[in-house]
Amino acid sequence: MDRLSIIKKPIASELETFTRYYTSQFKSDNPLLDNALKHVVDSRGKMMRPMFLMLIAKIAGELNTKIYAAATALEILHTASLLHDDVVDESDKRRGRPSLNVAYTNNIAVLTGDYLFSQALNNAAVTCDYHIVQELSILGKALSRGEIMQIQLQGEGTYSEENYMNVIYCKTASFFVCSAACACLLAGFPDETAECLKKFGKYAGMCFQMKDDIFDYSKADVGKPTGSDMREGKITLPALYVLRESNNPLLDPIREKLKKGVYLDDAEIETLIRLSVEEGGIAYANETIERYRAMALEQLPADMPQDIYDALVAYLDYVIQREK
Q1: Are 252 and 261 in contact (CB under 8 A)?
Q2: Euclidean distance between the first and final Cα of the chain, in Å?
Q3: CA distances to 193, 267, 293 from 299, in Å
Q4: From its phi and psi, is residue 220 left (phi > 0), alpha (psi between -120 and 50) or beta?
Q5: Per DSSP, what are the bridge partners of residue 98?
Q6: DSSP for residue 61
Q7: CB within 8 A of 236, min separation 6: which ones?
Q8: pTM of the full predicted structure?
Q9: φ, ψ of residue 213 in degrees (nearest 5)
Q10: Per-residue pLDDT tens digits for 194-246
Q11: How many C-beta atoms lie closer than 10 Å to residue 31's C-beta?
Q12: At what angle do helices 191-214 and 161-168 cross, to 10 degrees?
């Protein structure tokens, strides 16, 4: 059985119910907005965050409407943030399809994102638990903080591994922490168990983003052009390692540009990608991912149902070993 099947197995019927619930949120009586929402929902991903939330909640037993509403709120918030990210980053593709800002306009993309933020809040209210609303509020602030931090660091030229880790926590790992927190609240887990599962989410989320960043150094078809992060001024872990550790003189003018907050040109990007591969940057990033994987596994409670435990381990390994 492949990893995705292992992940889905304990929540197979619930995932079908959730998918129906989730897709029902992408409708409007305004034709333009309805078409924009259809474009967005047709481009949805594998629902990794809702599956994570549902797996954790399933430890306590059967899922209910409040769980589906919380998972929907989280995934809609994620989707809305991507619409805004695509406008900020001037992206033209999302999961291999034209992004909404290209298929329509920046205005439509931003306003559709705003509409979805409201839908997320509405679903949070369905849970009748203000702690869920609070967790989503914390998440929303983390997402904005991560984006602003990234822009600030690019402008200042203050690239470091510590700053990189802070940014990817805010922009990605915070989603997994929020998923675990919401599941634990609705399932009624004790604080100690909740803290462990939130840490598992944090480390899994960090692995997710570090793996995603490695794709920027690949020539494989991963749904975005190679070097796209660097063209946006984002210097990720493989390049950070090489810039810190390598004495290759080809990196000197690149370092100078980055210190001044100046974007690299195509030739410099190609050089930085090549040296990140040749001089240990990718290997270092993979070693870091494995270290975070080990920390994540240490957090899983020993007394959870075996199929849920197997699914969470498969989830972590799927995140790390996926090809796109």
Answers
A1: no
A2: 20
A3: 9, 43, 10
A4: beta
A5: 93
A6: S
A7: 164, 210, 213, 214, 216, 229, 285
A8: 0.93
A9: -70, -30
A10: 999 999 999 999 999 999 999 989 865 444 556 788 888 889 999 999 999 99
A11: 8
A12: 120
